[in-house]
Amino acid sequence: MFNPLDLIPRIPLGDWIEGFINWLLFHFGDFTRALAQVLRSAINSFNDGLMIIPPLVLIIIFSLIAWRMSNRSVALFSFVGLALIYNMGLWSASMETLAMVLLAASISIIIGIPVGIFSARKEMVHRIVWPILDLMQTMPAFVYLIPVIFFFRLGAVPAVMATVIFAMPPVIRLTGLGIQQVPRELVEASEAFGSTEWQKLVKVQLPLALPTIMAGINQCIMLSLSMVVIAAMIGAGGLGGAVWRAIQRLDIGGGFESGLAVVVVAIVLDRVTQRVRKTNSNS
Amino acid sequence: MAKITVENLTKIFGNHPEKALKLMDQGVSKDEILNKTGQAVGIKDVSFEIEEGETFVVMGLSGSGKSTLIRCLNRLIEPTRGKIFVGDDEVTAMNENQLRIFRRNKQAMVFQQFALFPHRNILENTAYGLEIQDANNSEKAERAQKALELVGLKGWETKYPEQLSGGMQQRVGLARALAVDPEILLMDEAFSALDPLIRREMQDELLDLQQKMNKTIVFITHDLDEALKIGDRVALMKDGEVVQIDPPELILTNPADEYVAKFVEDVDLAKVLTAEGVMIHPKVVAFPKDGPRVALRKMKDQCINSLFVVNRDRQLEGYITAEDAAKAAERGEKELTGIIKTDSARVSPDTTLNELFELSAAATIPIAVLDDEKKLLGIIIRGAILSALVKEAV
Q1: Which residues in chain A are closer than 8 Å to B162, comparing Cβ atoms?
Q2: Which residue in A196, A208, A283 is closest to B100 by CB distance?
Q3: Which of the ends of chain B has fewer CB neighbours closer than 10 A, N or C?
């Protein structure tokens, strides 16, 4: 049957993207290599920092933080859970994962919050940023992994880059949302008293947006963790690496153990950062 | 010299105000402009002057442009055309920096929904205006504290806005504005969100405060009773235009057009009209040195049976009745001094008719209206109160 759509020649969208990436590689290759260098040393120092502390001390420190941020049962869970990870021989893998998560989340937050603030204040920025965020969030996570390999080779660095792309959108969105949700009258009041733009931001908008921003940070950390695990496919190592190896060997027990370790790390991170959000909204 | 001068102020909302301005100048109506150009006329060619120390009320229904107008005064909303002066400074010509300094030092605003910062305690809220002027200001806390005491909120400094009732929150809003000691106080429906009882209380308090502070106040309201109670002058707005600017009594007794007349129709005149408005000038008075016979003749001429007695400075001494005067005459007394009674009702010129009803019902002789120095300004006879109400209603 005749279909008019067939008359349109196949648009080589994939070729174009590839060409674009190649162009980027050719022109910005030096930059990405330098960036990779910086990131690699950052990951290493994060990781070394975590590994230099004796596991028991670190477990106790984490549990105390959990106690401080949340409550006694979360602290107890952290202690038992982290001890279990050590017991399963997954301690160094967990610390590798944690180092990547912390680095990726920090980068996402450092970039995301200012972008969120700008997008809330300038309609133009909002209009440009929001569609990009839609793209970043809905594109299947694996798809990022391909181009980052070209830019950053295999290993932890491309994993962190892919994770930043994947985990940054909620920080930007929720920062923007939080600021936009500050009641109009309060912003007006602040302006009516003659605040500068900076005073308005720091004294009124950011404090009132803080609970929402903290929700974004919590989201960001959780997404970072999930992506860091997936990034084992490009050789990120860590707990994801352990899962990946178990899959390849069809090792049910090993897979389950490393999966459990991911769950423990996730729950500890989530409870600790979620609590920050709640304390703030209560005050 | 006027404190605030507004000249031909116009505000058009929309992306192409110039189109709307052109049509407006041709005399096209607001609705037609909206239909033709999609531009909404917020304020249309408004001019007025506000004197220093005056309480100027802008009154109108929602959509009449009153909130836009007050926001133009400190340029929270940019006027499309026209000029605003505060003293000699043209607000509409200020650059961003000048405008910020103007907002910080010359004016302060009180908002309908209070607009307190929920993350700051009461003292920090009150000090906000001072804090942004100079974060290190050591008097900051002290001045904020004083402002809080002024509105009767001493002891609440460390509480948070959500812990306070609506009335108290608005007191904080008022304190926050007073803390910066502005020359001009802009009050945007400041009491509209409060219960009627609290609202009346706040109105009285504002009047009290205003007597002490003597600020220039621009007060926005949709409540006519409030406007008439608070305002030295009232500007009535309709569809972005000012229909009438007059003192409250003139708005009531001399409405500029049918719209105003309809508006004031339901006003409880008893609450608004004052003793000054219904008193009459006493045609005759007696002096203490007058003899009883002179006094009796004065009463007979006027067909009345009592007479107020004043001294040479027209200060009220009391009153005499015809009966007492006749007896004194029989006794052959030469002066009235012995028969002057002082138990009659005395009121000040701004007493409302409402309060006069009771007094007049109990009184057998007219009510005396005295000024601060006890001088007799006029008298109110019982019928005058009723006839005033009837006359205005017709």
Answers
A1: none
A2: A196
A3: C
In CATH, the architecture of B276-393 is Roll (3.10)
Which residue matches tokens 């860091």?
A228
Rounded to whole angstroms, the Cα distance separating A181 from A120 reads 10
Name residue, tokens 């931001």: A201
Q: Which of A110, A105, A166 is nearest to A133 (CA)?
A: A166
Partners of residue B13 on adjacent β-strands: B40
* Domain boundaries defined on chain A: 24-282
This model of the complex carries an ipTM of 0.74
Q: Report the chain A residue with the minimal C-alpha distance to residue B109.
A: A192
For an interface test with B, which of A190, A193, A198 has the most B Cβ atoms less than 10 Å from its Cβ?
Answer: A193
CATH architecture of B4-106+182-267: 3-Layer(aba) Sandwich (3.40)
Contact residues on chain B for A209, CB-CB shorter than 8 A: none
pLDDT digits over B135-157, tens only? 676 788 888 999 999 888 888 98
Q: What is the residue type of B75?
A: R
* Mean pLDDT of the B53-58 span: 94
Other Cβ atoms within 10 Å of B344 Cβ, number: 18
Question: How do residues A134-190 score in pLDDT, each as one tens digit?
Answer: 888 888 877 877 777 877 778 888 888 888 988 999 999 999 999 999 999 999 999
DSSP string over A33-60: HHHHHHHHHHHHHHHHHHHHS-HHHHHH
Task: Please answer yes or no on whether B119 and A207 come within 8 Å at the CB atom.
Answer: yes
CA distance B12 to B82: 12
Q: Do A203 and B128 touch (CB under 8 A)?
A: yes
Which CATH class, in words, describes the domain spanning A24-282?
Answer: mainly alpha
Rg (CA), chain A: 22
Q: Tokens 């235009």 correspond to what residue? A: B241
Residues of chain A whose C-beta is under 8 A from some C-beta in B? 183, 185-186, 188-196, 199, 203-204, 207-208, 283
Say what the pTM is.
Answer: 0.74
Nearest CA to CA, how far is A126 from chain B (Å)?
Answer: 20
**B271 shares contact with chain A (CB less than 8 Å):** no
Question: What token pair was written down for B109?
Answer: 């605003």
Q: How far apart are CA B296 and CA B302, in angstroms?
A: 10
- Please give the Cα distance from B288 to B311 (Å, whole number): 7
Token duo for residue A107: 């980068």
Write the CA distances from B169 to A79, B78, B181, integer angstroms. Answer: 47, 29, 19
| Chain-chain contact of B117 with A186 (C-beta, under 8 angstroms) | yes
- Tell me phi and psi for residue B370, to 5 degrees: -120, 150
Please give the Cα distance from B392 to B390 (Å, whole number). 6
Q: Cα distance from B74 to chain A (closest Cα, Å)?
A: 7
